[in-house]
Design brief:
By secondary structure, the chain is of the alpha+beta class. The protein has eight helices and four strands, in the order E-H-H-E-H-H-E-H-H-H-E-H. The structure holds adenosine-3',5'-cyclic-monophosphate. The site of adenosine-3',5'-cyclic-monophosphate (CMP) has 8 residues, from loops. InterPro entries: NDK-like_dom, NDK-like_dom_sf, Nucleoside_diP_kinase, Nucleoside_diP_kinase_AS.
């Protein structure tokens, strides 16, 4: 079944010049890139995107990291896109990824538990919410980020 997922190349991935390598992996893996945009989050938009983590100890650090520079948001489409993309990026902690999933994207460009270079939606429901957050034209509701 065709499915969509939201990808972020996080600020560390953009700064480290990993964008082209990540995009090559995306295209070689048979995803269609439906949309792409560069976006600088601020404290408010980052906190809203990560609202589910607002009670966690790492939340303020996460907001600081995600606002530290521009990120690239992309909408990918493919059969089972959510699971396929999560398989490619590997575990959240880049230290773990380097050991258990050495060919994963986070093993290539991630640094640690927080600076893990890329994001992938964790379910089709999250994907639709996250896509509408960045791309107004792909959502029935309202996009938070205005062009
Ligand atoms: P992601 O899974 O894409 O979305 C939540 C992010 O929070 C995660 O990537 C990491 O960047 C960050 N994160 C998750 N767990 C921790 C943690 N224990 N300490 C610091 N950052 C974390």
């Amino acid at each position: 079944r065709q499915e969509r997922t939201l990808v972020l190349i996080k600020p560390d991935g953009v700064k480290g010049n990993y964008t082209d390598r990540i995009k090559n992996t995306i295209l070689e893996s048979g995803f269609l890139i439906l949309r792409e945009r560069t976006q600088q989050l601020n404290d408010e938009t980052a906190a809203k995107f990560y609202a589910e983590h607002s009670s966690k100890g790492f939340f303020s650090s996460l907001v600081k990291y995600m606002t530290s520079g521009p990120l690239i948001a992309m909408v990918l489409e493919k059969d089972d896109a959510v699971a396929a993309w999560r398989g490619l990026i590997g575990p959240t902690d880049a230290h773990v990824a380097k050991v258990t999933h050495p060919n994963s994207i986070r093993a290539m460009c991630g640094l640690n538990m927080e600076e893990n270079c890329v994001h992938g939606s964790d379910s089709p429901q999250s994907a639709e919410r996250e896509i509408s957050f960045f791309f107004e034209d792909l959502s029935a509701g309202e996009s938070l980020i205005r062009r």
